[in-house]
Design goal:
Elements: H1 10-16, H2 33-49, H3 93-126, H4 148-156
Helix pairs in contact: 1-3, 2-3
Length: 157
């Protein structure tokens, strides 16, 4: 059995977005609701266009809270890091194979979600002047510890 699942890189997601960053006008000066919303809507459309077997709305769960869609009966699945492999209690070969298959799928989903989040950060940050995000950036890690949701909240408030 082949347990390797291909996961796209953040750069590959950026290339596959149907709406390229350059197609969305860059916001010059202080963002307004309208100018910020134009970028956010393009980002949401890009996420919806990315296929995800767990959701009817693509990778939208990577940038939005699922609670916002519960009333509309749209399933948005949050992914979590499955951690390290642990075969404890799996004595039979069949049990180990099932566990490994499930683990590899969970790990691939989590890695794909993390990569699209990085692509989304790159997309949104490229559409605004950097000065508006400096309060969020760490001098060493820059935006690695900042979520897309935090960036969207920051720019809309």
């Amino acid at each position: 059995m082949n347990y390797n699942i291909t996961v796209l890189s953040p750069e590959a997601y950026l290339e596959r977005f149907p709406i390229q960053a350059e197609e969305v006008p860059k916001v010059i000066g202080k963002p307004t609701f309208v100018s910020a919303n134009r970028v956010i809507v393009a980002l949401k459309k890009n996420c919806v266009s990315m296929k995800d077997t767990r959701s009817k709305v693509g990778k939208l769960h990577c940038i939005m809270d699922s609670k916002a869609h519960e009333e509309k009966k749209i399933t948005i699945v949050a992914s979590t890091d499955p951690g390290e492999l642990d075969f404890t209690g799996k004595e039979k070969e069949e049990d180990r194979a099932v566990y490994l298959s499930k683990y590899c799928r969970q790990k691939a989903h989590w890695e794909a979600d993390e990569n699209i989040k990085e692509a989304c950060k790159t997309f949104i940050l490229s559409r605004f002047e950097p000065v508006y995000f400096q309060v969020l950036a760490d001098p060493i890690t820059e935006f690695k510890n900042v979520t897309v949701k935090e960036i969207i909240k920051h720019i809309t408030t």
